[in-house]
Fold this sequence. Notes:
eight-stranded parallel beta barrel, single chain, alpha/beta, globular
Amino acid sequence: MKLRGLYAITDSQLLAGRFLSYVEAALEGGVTLLQYRDKGTDESRRLREADTLLKLCERYKTQLIINDDAELASRLGVGVHLGQTDGSLTLARTILGRKAIVGATCHGSLELAEQAKAEGVSYVAFGRFFTSTTKPDAPAIALDILDQARARFHLPIAVIGGVTLENAPQLVEHGADLLAVVHGLFGADSAQEVTRRARAFNALLKKN
């Protein structure tokens, strides 16, 4: 499967009260990967929500990814995305099998990406490039890291952190395959607007 397109990431606070309607609206507009990101400690609720998202994703032929929890991903038979402090990529790959999508946060480091590649990841994620509401303290990195990564790795490149329809074109220009978006997608006034934004993000990637 070619990993290219919109990578929608959920945010339980931003989506409070409209979680499923907005997620479905995004899927309607076309989503390559949907990441369930929830830092809560209520495991039964997380399992329930992730399971509901999986059923939705299956209907729209979208791949579900679980943030930071290889065990939950394993229970559902889906992929996982791990940050630098979220456990071993090698172990995640072993647990989930060789066909599962496993992604890694590499911040602005080609060395971390090199290491992740050696551990069998499906894509590498760089960011943040712009001011991010989700991770305001993350250091900003220069766009040329994408050019270097593109030249060095034959892996899909995800970009995350403050991605909007206004700044996404330059990320695509520098080699991004997956636009990972939270607020730029879900911070909308209506479900229709979420669908419109999803289509617009996808259109940017189809041009290249």
